[in-house]
Design a protein that fits this description.
alpha+beta, three-stranded antiparallel sheet, translation release factor activity, Pep_chain_release_fac_I_sf, Mitochondrial translational release factor 1, Pep_chain_release_fac_I
Length: 451
């Protein structure tokens, strides 16, 4: 599992104000999160421009979670299960089917067991060094150089144990088999509020994810791009391929809200803050996925491309729309002047949407389901707000707040920090849910008292 960045704080304001407020114990509007994601606010819930507002909060002390009693019980259950499986696999009388089932579970627990054993060995080594330190401290001919070496070794062991415990917690987080998948990402302008501002914001979000793909060295292939007036965007679909793309972007799906004074378009004449929304849709594309489609179930239409034109793009019937008749799912592409290329891209989009529809039926609670991500596209469904007037981005799921919105919209480190914070939060919640589920299924282990 990829290491997430450590806890960092960044402040706005001039140096004198920052020093004065640090001397008083920090700025107004501060907030932090507990392990379970609950927020605690200090004096003000939403910091205002010019106040000292912390940003980029991370919970990096995974040792706290390691010390959690429920997590410790869950870990002990897994280690007991691993030991039992190891003993069963030693028996020669197991049939091939049972052996495969046991081997599969044994392999799943192996990473946790390896780290657990390394922690146990490190603790034994540390205890031995502490014993030597205690013995040498009481001797008359105490060797100061030896004592210093032992103290340095003990400090290194303590640091190693902390690191191993963090690795163990990461190994305990339930894995998502789709995390390594490529994705189909769609951006869609909001339909309940806004207007020009929604379309302009949709284009900025498209540019932001393109910048993030460049930051992560991912492939970014545009499948469809439907522009709007004043430089806006109605809808776009792209395929993003690379390392762990779905793991990083799966929580970006949902409604994003913008608050700003429009710079162009009819709304800009009013010179007041407008609110708009747009929707991000994330569809995984597993390497192994293959959706069989009967050609009889398809209706394929061709039409002239819409948009600004140029280079004869909208003078021929090159755009393609494919309708899957049994489900009503539609995919279209007008990105190139080649009807064959547009048809191929539209078919890939259709397969991704059909695959997601199939997955949604099997796992209705999956966060990446298209229906859940699209919602009503209203403000009440928002997962994140972008307030340009106050230069602030707020993720409503974790309480994460960051400033410098122009830098954030470039899709570089600032966006990566927020994504990692959300990822850390959801993976921690997934682990705690697994612990709770295990406790409800196994309140007590055989031969072990409840206390």
């Amino acid at each position: 599992m990829e290491d997430l960045p450590p806890m960092r704080m960044r402040y706005k304001g001039d140096d004198r104000r920052r020093r004065r407020r640090r001397g008083r114990g920090g700025g107004r509007g501060g907030r932090w999160r507990t392990l379970t994601g609950h927020r605690h606010a200090s004096l003000t819930e939403e910091p205002h421009w010019g106040t000292l507002a912390p940003a980029r909060f991370y919970h990096s002390d995974l040792g706290d979670l390691y010390k959690n009693e429920s997590v410790q019980r869950y870990l002990q259950q897994l280690m007991d299960e691993y030991k039992e499986l190891s003993e069963k696999l030693q028996h020669a009388h197991l049939n091939e089917t049972d052996r495969k089932v046991l081997m599969k579970r044994h392999t799943e627990l192996l990473p946790v067991a390896n780290v657990f054993e390394r922690i146990e060995q490190a603790l034994r080594d540390q205890e031995e060094v502490l014993s030597l330190l205690h013995t040498s401290a009481g001797a008359k001919d105490e060797d100061e150089q030896l004592t210093q070496l032992l103290k340095e070794e003990e400090a290194q062991m303590s640091s190693r144990i902390v690191t191993l415990r963090e690795d163990l917690i990461k190994a305990l987080v339930p894995s998502d088999p789709l995390d390594s998948s490529n994705i189909l990402l769609e951006v869609v302008t909001g339909r309940t509020t806004g207007g020009d501002i929604c379309q302009q914001f949709t284009r900025e979000m498209f540019d932001m994810y393109q910048g993030y793909a460049w930051y992560k060295n991912w492939d970014f292939e545009v499948l469809n791009y439907t522009p709007a007036e004043y430089g806006g965007l109605h809808h776009a679909a792209v395929r993003i391929a690379g390392e762990s793309v779905y793991r990083h972007l799966k929580h970006e799906g949902g409604t994003h809200r913008v608050q700003r004074i429009p710079e162009v378009g009819l709304s800009s004449r009013m010179q007041r803050i407008h609110t708009g929304t747009m929707t991000v849709i994330i569809l995984p594309q597993p390497v192994e996925f293959d959706v069989h489609i009967d050609p009889k179930d398809l209706r394929i239409d061709t039409f002239r491309s819409r948009g600004a034109g140029g280079q004869s793009v909208n003078t021929t019937d090159s755009a393609v729309r494919i309708v899957h008749l049994p489900t009503g799912i539609i995919a279209e592409c007008q990105q190139t002047r080649s009807q064959l290329q547009n048809r191929d891209r539209a078919m890939r989009m259709l397969k991704a949407r059909l695959y997601q529809s199939m997955m949604g039926k099997e796992t209705e609670q999956r966060d990446s389901a298209r229906k859940q991500q699209v919602g009503s596209r209203s403000q009440s469904d928002r997962i994140r707000s972008y307030n340009f007037s106050q230069d602030r981005v707020t993720d409503h799921r974790t309480g994460y707040v960051t400033r410098d919105i122009k830098e954030f919209m470039k899709g570089g480190e600032a966006l990566h920090d927020l994504i990692c914070d959300v990822l850390r939060h959801t993976e921690t919640e997934a682990l705690l849910e697994a612990v709770e589920s295990s406790s409800s299924l196994k309140p007590t282990e055989s031969g072990r008292s409840a206390d």
